[in-house]
């Protein structure tokens, strides 16, 4: 009953009894259609009851639930748990993202709005972004990429820059990370297994497509929507009992990816700015992921529709949708990036910033280390300032070099220990045995002191720094 009490009984005789028996008073309950919609959330407030002659005589096993939120909502695509799931199931790792999104906790799927409680960016930082032309470039090109060596703050800069924009206007920001397995089907649209309740899916489709006349008052629309919801539930109750049967229908449904969804939302809310942050954009096959949409993301092509591969429907990229990417140049040189991508994005280079390293000794080590890397013609593979920014003492410096910086250099120079010894010194790197000299990496004060001393000596800029005298 739409207007009934908030304390209702929910029955589960068709649900797996194991998890039903395990559930207890005060446990949270999510009423989910098994696909992409949440109908309600609530809390179990009563113990187990066996109601043999209840009006719902097909549902004898019951526990009382107080429904605290009955707003129906769509689940974002990247929150959906994978695979087929029982009708009543205890949450596990596969549903963590969904639960976090539903209850507003820290989450994988990021949405930052100007009216949402987030840590605001530093106003001085926002002013710096303006002076450096980041805003002007984004508004002109509609999409930009921050690129540079590891540890130069590309992802952090992208997020802070987006939050700066959210301070000035209503803004929704979402984030995705590209990787070699990421595809067009994840990003734009693709077919997914529909699960067993085809009838429930059809009910959603039919009733969601009912458009109410605009001349109706809000009260009338609300009353009609209540009736639609009742019919929807009746259909789904039959669907759960296997009526009707749709065995001859496809077991796959076409689902929208994050980019298609953002395009749709941006079109429907032209006064809101939508920003998609794509981290590690060059780790995916960009041309394959964007598909036909790569031709219409440019500013002068915005609003021009293209026909999508699977749905055969037109889609265009609205002008209020922006893309901010990050690119690690140590993984792939900018020269190797697809020409079509380079032409359609504005590029902002982020290099190691010594001013962010406050400790003068560590700042000198970073400066001299990167100078040696530059001497090897490896500009894109310098060490970023983030490796040194938060170092508190020589113990942390030694640890960072052993477990982060040296493995990175080994990868850069293909384990060429002659070059490594040339950069870090022949005492720290045992060139003949092709390994580290472990005496400089022991966990004691004497070893740390010797490590810093030998490292500083090996990295010393002999042209610009005076020689030590006895």
Key terms:
15 helices; five-stranded antiparallel sheet; AAA+_ATPase; five-stranded parallel sheet; single chain; AAA family ATPase; Rossmann fold; 470 residues; 16 strands; alpha/beta; ATP hydrolysis activity; 4 domains; Methyl-DNA_Rec/Restrict_Enz
Number of domains: 4
* Low-confidence spans: 1-16, 82-86, 105-117
Helix content: 25-40%
Our measurement of the CA-to-CA distance between the termini, rounded to an integer number of angstroms, reads: 91 Å
The portion of residues forming beta strands comes to 15-25%
What do we call the CATH topology of the largest domain? Rossmann fold
Structural class label: alpha/beta
Quick one: CATH class of the largest domain? Answer: Alpha Beta
Shape: globular
Q: What is the total tally of β strands?
A: 16
**Main sheet characteristics:** 5 strands, antiparallel
Secondary-structure blueprint:
Layout: E1 7-11, H1 17-22, E2 28-32, E3 37-50, E4 61-69, E5 73-74, H2 96-103, H3 123-131, H4 134-141, E6 143-148, H5 154-166, E7 171-177, H6 184-187, E8 189-193, H7 198-208, H8 218-240, E9 252-256, H9 258-268, E10 273-279, H10 286-290, E11 306-307, E12 314-315, E13 321-328, H11 339-344, E14 346-349, H12 360-375, H13 394-412, H14 417-424, E15 429-430, E16 435-436, H15 445-459
Parallel strand pairs: 6-13, 6-14, 7-10, 10-13
Antiparallel strand pairs: 1-4, 2-3, 3-4, 3-5, 8-9, 11-12, 15-16
Helix pairs in contact: 3-5, 7-8, 13-15
């Amino acid at each position: 009953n739409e207007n009934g009490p908030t304390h209702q009984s929910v029955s589960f005789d068709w649900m797996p009894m194991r998890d039903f028996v395990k559930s207890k008073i005060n446990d949270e309950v999510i009423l989910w259609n098994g696909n992409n919609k949440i109908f309600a959330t609530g809390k179990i407030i009563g113990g187990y009851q066996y109601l043999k002659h209840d009006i719902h005589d097909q549902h004898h096993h019951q526990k009382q639930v107080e429904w605290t939120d009955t707003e129906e909502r769509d689940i974002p695509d990247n929150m959906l748990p994978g695979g087929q799931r029982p009708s009543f199931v205890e949450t596990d790792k596969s549903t963590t993202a969904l639960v976090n999104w539903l209850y507003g906790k820290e989450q994988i799927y990021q949405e930052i709005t100007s009216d949402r409680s987030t840590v605001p960016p530093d106003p001085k930082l926002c002013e710096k972004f303006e002076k450096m032309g980041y805003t002007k470039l984004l508004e002109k090109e509609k999409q930009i990429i921050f690129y540079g060596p590891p540890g130069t703050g590309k992802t952090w800069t992208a997020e802070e820059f987006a939050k700066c924009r959210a301070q000035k206007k209503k803004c929704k920001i979402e984030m995705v990370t590209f990787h070699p397995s990421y595809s067009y089907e994840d990003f734009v649209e693709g077919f997914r297994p529909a699960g067993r309740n085809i009838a429930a899916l059809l009910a959603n489709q039919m009733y969601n497509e009912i458009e109410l006349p605009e001349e109706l008052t809000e009260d009338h629309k609300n009353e009609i929507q209540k009736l639609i919801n009742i019919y929807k539930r009746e259909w789904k109750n039959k669907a759960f009992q296997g009526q009707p049967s749709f065995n001859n229908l496809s077991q796959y449904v076409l689902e929208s990816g994050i980019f298609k969804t953002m395009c749709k939302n941006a079109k429907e809310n032209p006064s809101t700015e939508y920003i998609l942050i794509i981290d590690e954009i060059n780790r995916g096959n960009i041309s394959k992921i964007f598909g036909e949409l790569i031709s219409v993301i440019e500013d002068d092509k915005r609003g021009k529709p293209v026909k999508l591969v699977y749905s055969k429907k037109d889609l265009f990229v609205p002008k209020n949708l922006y893309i901010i990417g990050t690119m690690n140049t140590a993984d792939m040189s900018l020269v190797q990036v697809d020409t079509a991508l380079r032409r359609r994005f504005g590029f902002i280079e982020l290099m190691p910033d010594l001013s962010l390293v406050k400790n003068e000794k560590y700042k000198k080590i970073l400066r001299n280390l990167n100078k040696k890397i530059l001497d090897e013609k490896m500009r894109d593979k310098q060490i970023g300032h983030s490796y040194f920014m938060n170092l508190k003492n020589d113990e942390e410096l030694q640890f960072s070099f052993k477990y982060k910086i040296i493995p990175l250099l080994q990868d850069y120079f293909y384990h060429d220990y002659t070059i490594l010894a040339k950069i870090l010194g022949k005492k720290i790197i045992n060139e003949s045995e092709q390994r580290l000299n472990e005496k400089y990496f022991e966990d004691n004060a004497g070893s740390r002191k010797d490590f810093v001393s030998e490292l500083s000596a090996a990295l010393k800029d002999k042209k610009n720094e005076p020689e030590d005298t006895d």
